[in-house]
Amino acid sequence: MRVLVAGAGPAGLAFAAQSAAAGARVTVVEREQEGTLPAWTASVQTRTLDALGLGGLGAFHGHRGIRVGERAWTVPGVAERRVVSGGRLVGALRDRCARAGVTFRWDTGFEDLPEGIERTVDLVVGADGARSAVRARWADTFAPRITHGSRHRLLVRVAGTLAPQALVGLRDTPVVAWAQGDAAVVEVGDRAYQANLARRSPIELAGRVALALDGLLDAPVVSATPMGRTATVMCRQAGQGNVLLVGDAACATWDAEGRGADRALRDGVGLAGVLTQLQHVRGTMNAWRVLAGERHRERHSAGQEALRWAESLGTAADHHDVAAVAAMLDQRWPTRQAATHAA
Ligand SMILES: Cc1cc2nc3c(=O)[nH]c(=O)nc-3n(C[C@H](O)[C@H](O)[C@H](O)COP(=O)(O)OP(=O)(O)OC[C@H]3O[C@@H](n4cnc5c(N)ncnc54)[C@H](O)[C@@H]3O)c2cc1C
Prior knowledge:
Layout: E1 2-6, H1 10-21, E2 25-29, E3 41-45, H2 46-51, E4 59-62, E5 65-68, E6 71-74, E7 81-85, H3 86-100, E8 103-105, E9 123-126, H4 133-137, H5 139-142, E10 145-162, E11 175-189, H6 190-197, H7 202-212, E12 221-234, E13 239-240, E14 243-245, E15 251-252, H8 260-278, H9 281-318, H10 322-332
Parallel strand pairs: 1-2, 1-9, 2-8, 9-14
Antiparallel strand pairs: 3-7, 4-7, 5-6, 10-11, 10-12, 12-15, 13-14
Helix pairs in contact: 1-3, 1-8, 8-9, 9-10
The structure holds flavin-adenine dinucleotide (FAD).
């Protein structure tokens, strides 16, 4: 079976490695050059890495944590996770692909391939991320829908290391932030953003964010970059003919939710499993449409729910409504009282 994969990210590589090892002839086209590795770090479920035989990768960091103002809790009942650098993860998957005989075409965007390329292979897998060119080529079929939230996001870099995945409600300038390594994604309500942060020079912006986060990020702010508004993307369907989408190309949720890499890997492994089991493109397309449809609906509603929840939490923090913030935490994590009080 000949398979063309667009995108050498976690989804495309996990799929390519597993399906090539099971006998498929896989070619991956990647827009970037061979030496380029991603700069992000992600927290990925230990069981996802285990499924790929990469359980030893990254550092164990236990469970997701939440911090509000000066208080922090670890959240019980949430899957065990490891922090991995995107570079190490993608590097390990590329090695796996090379051993399984996957062919790479670097420096080649899917948009560079001729119209009708799908007729020259048995299956096309669009794994080219949130701005997918595969999705764009078949936009009528996939019909992506983007839902914007009302909060603005900034990527903040600090000189130091931040506690992983802290969700922060500030006292004076209301933000919700998600931190890891030397980066934090800070979210600000539209009103506060327009009043304090919009149309600032990079230096002014970093200064204002540093002031707002004073004492809360445990490290000095080096830079702050606007990332646009929170958003989720969902497609009407996962595949058509012999073309399908996986990972962020199929369903990208608000990135501060911090599950994209995990889901991308599970998509890749899941699709390779279906293909290997069925050994038949039409059967795989049918099975994937059902499987992915369910997953995407669940992801989208979870993403939307998380978005609404974070926005309400931000609004409560905007109004310094400590009781409302506490009630929201209790509602989302009823076992919070039993959680470890970390600070
Ligand atoms: C700062 C930051 C922090 C994050 N933290 C976390 C986290 O803690 N936990 C988590 O689970 N997720 C996290 N994510 C999200 C995670 O990185 C993504 O959800 C995940 O990488 C998606 O994998 P993917 O393979 O679907 O797409 P991508 O990783 O986007 O990979 C797509 C690949 O396709 C290539 N490509 C793009 N366009 C084309 C084209 N036209 N033709 C050919 N190739 C193309 C790209 O170069 C890339 O190599 C974070 C993201 C960011 C930006």
